[in-house]
Amino acid sequence: EFMSYHYERSYSERIETAEKEIKTLSKELSRDEKQVKRLEKKIERIDKKIAGATDALKIQELEAEMVTLSSDKQRLIETLPQLRSRLELLKGDVNNLKNQSLTIQSAIISL
């Protein structure tokens, strides 16, 4: 019974830790995806302002702002696949840990 409790506790803690990380990464991924969409809308609005602008200095300022926003957007987009990959790996880890825990518990019970 002690072994059963020990293994159950050990796996529960590892699963809990991984699930917390999944929750954190999910929030981060969602936040970054929303930020990309916000940046796309800002870029679109600036592009419209440029199309309607006649003052060369104003156009330059808007273009500079667009370059900055585009750079920010690209930097975020480049991090998304890594976040998604890490999230999927953690979900797989949780499933593996749950299966291992069940297997060990069954083996202990059968002793």
Overview of the structural elements:
The chain has 111 residues and is mostly helical. Helix content is 95%, strand content 0%. The protein has helices spanning 2-52, 56-109. Helix 1 runs antiparallel to helix 2. The longest helix has 54 residues, at 56-109. The relative contact order is 0.16.
Radius of gyration: 24 Å
Poorly predicted runs of 5 or more residues: none
Along the chain, the helix and strand elements come as HH
Share in helix: over 70%
Quickly count the helices. 2
Quick tags:
111 residues
Structure, briefly:
With 111 residues, this protein is mostly helical. The chain contains two helices and no strands.
List the helices and strands and how they pair.
Layout (H helix, E strand, L loop, with lengths): L1 H51 L3 H54 L2
Helix pairs in contact: 1-2
